[in-house]
Amino acid sequence: MAGVQLVGLTKHYKRGQEIIRALDGVTLDIAPGEFVAVIGRSGSGKTTMLDLLGLLLKPTAGSLVIDGVETTQLGDRQRAHMRARKVGFVFQEYNLLSGLTVFENVMLPQRYAPQARGDGEAGKKRALDLIERVGLTDRIKHRPSELSGGQMQRVAIARSMVNRPSLILLDEPTGAVDTETAQQLVDLLKLLNRQEGVTLVLVTHDLDIAGNATRHIRLKDGQVVSDEKVGEPVTV
Amino acid sequence: MELFRNIWRRKLRSTLTISGIVIGVFALTTMGALAENFNALIDGGVKYFGGSIQVGPPDGQAAALLPVSKIDEIRKVEGVEAAFAGYSFQAKPGGALVFSFGVPDTIVGADPDENNYSALKLTYAQGRFVSASSRGEVTLGSTISREFKKNVGDTIDLPVKPADAKPDFINHTFTVVGILNETKTAPDSFAYINLTDAQMLLGDSLPASFRGSIDTSQITEGISVYGKPGTSLSDLDKIADRINDQVPGVKALRPSDLVNAFKAGGQVFTAVAIAAAVLALVVGGLSVINTMFMAVSDRVREIGLKKAVGATTTNIMGEFLIEATLMGLIGGLIGYGLGVLLVVVRNTAFPAADGSTLFLITPTLTVLAIGFATVLGAGAGVFPAWRAARLDPVIALRND
Predict the structure, then answer these.
(1) ipTM > 0.85 for the complex
(2) Which terminal residue of chain B, N or C, has fewer Cβ atoms less than 10 Å from its own Cβ?
């Protein structure tokens, strides 16, 4: 795993005559296996940075390299393939598909990443293993409406890892659950981080949750105002 | 399975949408079966009249009669291989006027040899064709035999005596010697008798004051003329022209004129029937478009998520297209099934009084009905699917 490099990464929007500098020349080097918390006030550029890292947005300028691949010149199709193979997402609102079971939700990313899934049995085995590791084996055939918030987020975490991505992006993953559940989820993420060596980038307002990360990046007005390492990343 | 679940997720909306397709395909199946039945009838006419030349009296002659001697004159015309006298009479004279897509029951006087030349070959479910020499024999078409419930060996009085028959009404008892296989065209309603018996019926049909004074063995109602087997339609037209030039007192109709008239009639009927059904289907298609747009609106976050986990524009478009196509296919299968059910019930449980069928389901119609519904579903899904595929994942993921 070669980590993530941002060099002068910029995203500007036009609103009428005004130019919004959502992210303004951010340069960072995120090592493989790091657990990075991105903090900052609303409008500081956290979500834009997450969308850029997730290849959901194209930068206005700068360079973004994920696992050695310069992504800014990729076309839509290549970006989609890169997302499928290299990036996992966990959202505040879980974003599980209500018509699918726990198992089917976890399997969903495999549908779009044939290279990652190997043969069908290996893919199923991977999904079952992850469901077991997030403690939901007994809920495997349940629909999201039959799960608690914490359980739904566990499903989302398992889903984010099923294709063995090198980078997982967490957008306020504990924002919709109580404090105790939030800590359980973070403990689970740390465990998976150690077990799989996956890089985690967590966007949060919650400083307690951010305290679990090994590196804190603070954004303000689209720029990095502090970058502090508070621990060692797991060995990959 | 996910596809079916997606469709079933909005039960009422999907049911209403599929119902729209069902109604359209039901209309297409039944109207199409009506048109196919009519076209089979037309095809028989095209086959028969496209392979022979019909010769009758010249324009302006009051009685539709010709001297039999004209047959010999016609046989001498270049290109003529055979010519046969022909007679036809109403099998049920004085019957109530009813609208029918079939041919009315008809007694046809024909030479048994004519079948060797006709493009429309008659085959037998039972028995044989009437012989030229025996008297009182009849070979029945499939529909007329069903109508009168006759089998070989039974007798039938022809023409059928009407309820209000005059005292001088005459009919004769014929013995059934053969039943024809179904042709889906005119011969199904024909009762074939030989020329001698036909001339007897011709005598019976004359006004009482003329009967006995006219030798009906010397007159015919029409003459069917054949070229050598395989003679083209244009060559038959040329033979018809030569008959008109060389044989006075007759008028030979050009086969191509008759064929074109038949085809034009069939095309108009088919166009009207199919247009009505297609209209119904288009309404069904519009409801698929509406439903798919609603589905896209309902599932914006789902689309955003799928894009986030790696779905390409093609993946998303394909998923929505398959869903729309599946709705079309389901609606098509149910609509076609209901249409076939109606046709079968109508043709078997409530047959027409004359035994004829009104509908005909053909493989072409089956493919057309189900295929059109499926293509319609797919076509109706294209724009909504394209819109879904073009959604910006960032906006879609945070959609409320």
Answers:
(1) yes
(2) C
